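Practice record 12: protein with 3-methyl-2-oxobutanoic acid.
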Amino acid sequence: MDKNKIIIFDTTLRDGEQSPGASMNTEEKIQIALQLERLGVDVMEAGFAAASPGDFDAINQIAKQVESIKVASLSRALERDIKAAADAIAPAKNRRIHTFIATSPIHMEHKLKMKPDEVIKRAVEAVQYAKSFVDDVEFSCEDAGRSDISFLKEICDAVVNAGAKTLNLPDTVGFRLPYEIADMVRIMSEYIGDRAIISVHNHNDLGLAVANTLASIKAGARQVECTINGLGERAGNAALEEIVMAIKTRSDEFSGLYTDIVTKEIYATSRLVASITGIEPQPNKAIVGKNAFAHESGIHQDGVLKCAQTYEIIKAEDIGAEKNALVLGKHSGRHAFKDKLVNLGFDLNDEEVNEAFSKFKLLCDKKKEIFDDDIRALVSDEIIKIPEIYTIETLSTSSCNSGHSSAAISIKFNGEIISDAALGNGTADAIFKVIDRISKVAGELKDYKVSAVSQGKDALAKVTVKVAFGSSEPPFIGHGLDIDTMMASAKAYVSALNSYLSMKK
Ligand code: KIV
Ligand code: ZN
């Protein structure tokens, strides 16, 4: 084990998915998993296999499709969870079972209703059982941040003797300050020595997740658990991109320490996760926010023009966020388009390139200037393959500020065109009503977001909807991309409907 290497354990697909409203379907998770592999994360927590058949299936599909990245599944310290985790990750070349139990007095007494020695016994049995499936077992002391250090030593000793190779010390409720977390990590690293890797998993309830993670690294942690864009339960987890860029940019402080992250893939990964979950990072978010490299004040602009380092500590290119350059146009050929895709980090097969190229050409007819972000959106939309059960042929709408708006739509289903029209309270409402009527499936709109993909009056509109169908839980996500916001809304709604119908099948 190289003592200078910081192992990046990404939990976007597990803790990240626990962000309210961030649920993803299997196809979407696979796309993120493949991108995480390009990004170079060491371990990917692909889900919580026992949580639902959907979670199990997503982990299993990911385990089949990724090449070398280690695939982990979370499991409580219960036989049935561990068995589900083992089965789900079985096809992966490299795999890990991550099992946990709470160790803080408040959790043991009120949640688990177990005595400390029962908790230790359960933890040891869980690790032993997990070891019967895989060699690489991680054990987490849930709520380590509020656990007694003497109990942490006792339980960690026991699980290491049972075979755990990584000991994770989560600050589950984001309560600790950097120097407190550093103390805990230092004590535990010295106590455990070379017997296991000390890992941290910090939540952001006090806005300190990244600071706590960096302080932990200085105190001896060699694995950090984090998510893209800082997604995660409540206020989220430590953001991968912030940790990685802090280690890189402040190599003076983290001397010799390194990660294997391909930083040029950070921006593409952030965009993919934002577009799939519909959760955009705030504009002033460090590293990946829209404004992270924008200089507004004249003094700053002047300084940057004279010498970029006057106000820039990171180059946009380092994370693959080249200035939103005007790229290709109507006259660009397939070859230039393919080159651009490679540049932006997409790895598509010929058929996918052809489909994306046709969409690009259609867009060129409608939009004067095509930016990198347009291409990213177009291709991300393209690679998430939702079976096209219903497809929109034509849409015409009229909006009215003193009465009902209307939508008339033609939709293809089973080779037939079905047309209908409806009135609504607003144009989007009319569109969703008419789609419900045609499909004979009533959807309940839970969330609707619209954003402009790039800039200009003719910017592409990206619409994300969350729709509950019948008693289905959780709602299905749909994305729609179009130059026309209402058409994008219709496409998004139909894509949520298609996801639901294909899942039902
Ligand atoms: O926050 C937490 O404690 C967790 C564990 C299950 C690792 O997510
Ligand atoms: Zn967590």
